[in-house]
TrEMBL record:
This is L-seryl-tRNA(Sec) selenium transferase. NCBIfam families: selA (TIGR00474). Converts seryl-tRNA(Sec) to selenocysteinyl-tRNA(Sec) required for selenoprotein biosynthesis. It comes from Geoalkalibacter halelectricus. Pathway: Aminoacyl-tRNA biosynthesis; selenocysteinyl-tRNA(Sec) biosynthesis; selenocysteinyl-tRNA(Sec) from L-seryl-tRNA(Sec) (bacterial route): step 1/1.
Length: 472
């Protein structure tokens, strides 16, 4: 039995703690300011516990050596980066909270190659003059889509905003009421139009819009006709929309620009992998749309980016707009985008090496085998600390793309008597690497479609650790 005053007096001094081997061993890796904070935190925690209930404190745990070990753990935790790798076992391929598309190895190598030292970002190596950063991907984009010209910006929201501002500021933009999309919180077509200085003219009804609706709204103030892909919802049943080709006819007749925000922007048709037919970028270009925009990190499977394609004169105008500088793409992204697009020159290679495409096309039977093998390993490792089964459950595309599509597959379903399923999920998120699964029917589901085979060992480790510590 010890009273709190004598225990408090026994707490080690910070500068003495900092001389303990457990902390001096970290000096190379850990900045002094973090070591000191860690030592202070370890002492503060003990002080709190002493004041709360001195009878729970073993005086031996107050030795400099032992407190320094606790401080060392605090220091290591402070060293870990905030933004780090997470294992996505949700089965949602484009999970916006988890960074959307994982990049192809080739894209990562390209980032390293151009960013360790200098690059020809805006230098034309043939004549030594100033070049354009867009030039590194323009030819590739045109080749893959049939477009005349291309520009790239920070993301698709930026691309839509910039195109509207550059092409129709102070004029009217006509949009179908069925296409006034909201993409996660801040991006809503009516608000983006307002911000870019284009007056929104809504036509048609929520479920049906006809060519005559656009035609009746066209006047001398009309700046463009905008078609928006309803990426994250569908209007089913009694519905009608005006196709891109029909809009182009109207636009040509009245000399008005037609723009289409494709959202996801698939470069080739993936319907043979059980996905619904989605308009490809090349089809929109072939239909004669003047400006097409889409994201780099949705179904394209590249870095966060906004891509603009279309008529050369319009692309030039977009590049020259003052906001283009504010939205410009940085060199790391440009390197990753170029490498990803190069993979698309060979479709078979793109399907193997662009992770989003590989996950989309993964064979359910192979997924079942992988999941069953993993379940066997997990049963051995967990040693009956959890109940495991393999269940049939679909994966989804996510990221506001193909909202109704379910990709057939399997998941490892977990429950344990030790903790609730929510607590189990929370523990998995606290591991290193953290694991994010999905809860359904009071079970934790781990879907391997979104887990790379080379992540399986780490997943098993995090799972074992999550079920080992029961001191909660
Ligand atoms: C996702 C999406 C956007 C926004 O694209 P970001 O690249 O996330 O900025 C805009 N429009 C549509 C139709 C989308 O699906």
């Amino acid at each position: 039995m010890s009273d709190s005053n004598s225990l408090l007096r026994a707490l080690p001094a910070i500068d003495r703690l900092l001389q303990q081997p457990a902390l001096t061993a970290l000096a190379e890796r850990c900045p002094p300011v973090l070591l000191k904070e860690a030592a202070q935190a370890a002492v503060a925690e003990l002080r709190r516990r002493i004041l709360a209930d001195p009878t729970t404190i073993d005086p031996e745990t107050l030795s400099e050596e032992q407190v320094a070990q606790v401080a060392a753990r605090h220091a290591l935790a402070r060293l870990a980066p905030n933004l780090r790798q997470v294992i996505n076992a949700t089965g949602t391929l484009l999970h916006t909270n988890l960074g959307r598309a994982p990049l192809a190895t080739l894209a990562l190598e390209a980032i390293v190659a151009v960013s360790c030292r200098y690059s020809n970002l805006e230098l034309d190596l043939s004549d030594g003059r100033r070049g354009q950063r867009h030039a590194h991907v323009e030819e590739l984009l045109c080749r893959l889509t049939g477009a005349e010209a291309a520009a790239v910006v920070n993301n698709n929201a930026g691309a839509v905003y910039l195109a509207l501002a550059a092409l129709a500021q102070g004029r009217e933009g006509i949009v179908s009421r069925g296409e006034l999309v909201e993409i996660g919180g801040a991006f809503r077509i009516p608000e983006v139009m307002a911000a870019s200085g284009v007056r929104l003219v809504e036509v048609g009804a929520t479920n049906k819009t006809h060519p005559r609706d656009y035609e009746n709204a066209i006047n001398e103030h009309t700046g463009l006709l905008l078609k928006v892909h309803t990426s994250n919802y569908r209007i089913l049943g009694f519905s009608a929309e005006v196709s891109g080709a029909e809009l182009v006819q109207l636009g040509r007749r009245h000399g008005i620009i037609v723009m289409e925000d494709l959202g996801s922007g698939m470069l080739f048709d993936l319907s043979e992998y059980g996905l619904p037919r989605e308009p490809t970028v090349a089809e929109a270009v072939a239909a004669g749309i003047d400006i097409v925009t889409f994201s780099g990190d949705k179904l394209l499977g590249g870095p966060q980016a906004g891509i603009l394609l279309g008529r050369r004169d319009l692309i030039e105008k977009i590049r020259k707009h003052p906001m283009a500088r504010a939205l410009r793409m940085d060199k790391l992204t440009l390197a990753a985008l170029e490498a990803t697009l190069r993979l698309y020159l060979d479709r078979a290679r793109a399907l193997r090496e662009v992770p989003v495409l590989a996950m989309l096309a993964a064979d359910p039977e192979e997924l079942r085998l992988r999941t069953e093998n993993f379940a066997t390993r997990a049963r051995q490792a967990l040693n009956s600390r959890a109940t495991l089964s393999v269940v049939s459950t679909p994966a989804t595309v996510g990221g506001g793309a193909l909202p109704l599509t379910e990709l057939a597959g399997f998941a490892l379903a977990l429950t344990t008597d030790a903790v609730s399923v929510d607590q189990l999920a929370a523990r998995l998120r606290r591991q290193s690497p953290p694991v994010v699964g999905r809860i359904a029917d009071n079970q934790l589901l781990l879907n391997l479609r979104t887990v790379a085979p080379e992540e399986e060992d780490a997943l098993l480790q995090s799972l074992t650790k999550a079920l080992a510590d029961t001191d909660e």
